[in-house]
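Supplementary Note 3. Input sequence used for the single-chain structure prediction.
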Amino acid sequence: MEGRTLVKAKNAAIGLLARREHSEKELTLKLSKKFECEIVRETISVLRERGDLCDRRFAEMLVRSRFNRGFGPSYISKELRFKGVNPDLGKECLDIFDGQWHQKAEELFQKKRSQKVQLRDFEEEDGEFLVVSKKADDKLKRFLFGRGFPSEIVYKLFQ
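The predicted structure, written as discrete structure tokens, is reproduced below.
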């Protein structure tokens, strides 16, 4: 009976991994809702040995995905910790994008500045949008901080 349960657990895990990458912690939590602890441990072990489950691959995918969606290193690091990825591994994956965080923050900054509808505190002058109030600056800063960009990058954008 335990053999069939193990096969069911492996199939469930492979089904989850077929949809997207998962960290070990995520997959363990999802499987533990349906299967006993020992079965889950064995399933995770087998998947790790076969290479179907890899925290490094998951972390690289998550960092790349969040970077492309405009999130900063602080936000991504927090999400990696939440999903159970080793902090050293998370740092390694974040280091791949070193030097590109300022450019990504600047892209977001320019995009938000050009969205006159969302930020009504802008005024057009010579085809460029200029911030005319401290309120708009503060709104942009909060947005970038919320996206996880460090203060030195955010404040450079406003100089």
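The CA atoms of residues 26 and 124 lie 48 Å apart. Residues 2-19 form the longest helix (18 residues).
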